[in-house]
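Attaching the record inline, Q. Sequence:
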Amino acid sequence: MAKAYQNGLVVDSVGGGACQIATTLYQAALRAEVKITERKITNDSRLRTASGDAAIAGDYKDIKVTKQQKYSYICRGCYIRKKCYIHYLG
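Structure, as predicted:
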């Protein structure tokens, strides 16, 4: 569960939108020690996570990661039983 907007209110939600996926990508990148080259946070502090979040919107908010290693890696995401998982493999 994460915070999301619904009818102008902040509520707990499983599918709160693209920013939940961006935050999951950000958290996975931190754990995998992938270089984060661009990250924006949500403007609404009620939607932020304690361990850090990432927001995406239009062409002015994005999250970008950069390959630093000599070898390739794969970023794989899946949704299982109402949970989003993102793995960096490589």
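The radius of gyration is 14 Å. Residues 18-31 form the longest helix (14 residues).

More tomorrow.
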